[in-house]
Design goal:
The chain is mainly α and 214 residues long. The protein contains ten helices and no strands.
Length: 214
């Protein structure tokens, strides 16, 4: 047995209370970023999480580290929703519908301003979470398309940009008070995705890479 292996096995596991504190910080940060934007003071996040400032900085040495964790956690939950939809039997388009509404509830649109500017969009953790989510959504759409229920001229980029735009609250309105309207509008969009298509879409189907390069 190597010294490295021995050291790895003896490395202490994070205590349960430390893990709970980290989860509380990420949850509080996600809520406050959604409500107030990416520049909310870290002291306020600590206060909502019910922990001290030192605990925040012990887990996340700077704002970018916390933002990255929040974005990755939202994408992970969105990917898990896609996995659940893929595991469902029966109506393939119905599974896609359930996923879209769940993705909107994650308020992924509110995180968009946080992945701009100086934020490292190519951090390995972020890239891995994003690729996992995109692959699962693509599988979900492929299944609905193979069942003849999804129009053939749309792709993952079309779906995700629509979810982002349609779940974004209009200027001057509260992000947390429009859920009913968001889901109503999303359902109108989903009805437009059903095959057979009733119109011709201009341009080509959007991929996520198209959106990143736009």
């Amino acid at each position: 047995m190597t010294a490295t292996t021995t050291a790895q096995r003896k490395a202490p596991r994070p205590r349960a209370d430390a893990l709970r504190n980290r989860e509380r910080i990420v949850t509080a940060a996600s809520e406050m970023f959604t409500e107030f934007g990416p520049d909310v003071p870290l002291d306020e996040i600590a206060r909502r999480a019910g922990v001290g400032n030192a605990t925040v900085y012990r887990n996340f040495p700077d704002r970018d580290a916390l933002v990255r964790e929040v974005v990755c956690s939202v994408m992970d939950r969105t990917a898990e929703a896609a996995e659940l939809a893929l595991a469902a039997t029966g109506d393939a388009f119905g599974a896609l519908e359930r996923f879209v509404h769940t993705a909107a509830d994650e308020r992924i649109t509110a995180l968009c301003p946080m992945v701009q500017g100086t934020f490292d969009q190519y951090h390995p953790d972020l890239v891995a979470a994003r690729e996992r989510m995109e692959q699962l959504v693509e599988q979900l759409m492929d299944r609905a398309r193979a069942a003849g229920q999804l129009r053939g001229d749309v792709s993952v980029g079309d779906l995700m940009v629509a979810v982002a735009q349609l779940s974004r609250p209009p200027a001057g309105t509260g992000c947390l008070t429009l859920d009913g309207f968001v889901h109503r509008t999303l359902q109108l969009f989903l009805d437009g995705l059903r095959a057979p298509a009733r119109s011709h879409l201009p341009g080509a189907a959007l991929t996520m890479e198209d959106l990143r390069q736009a």
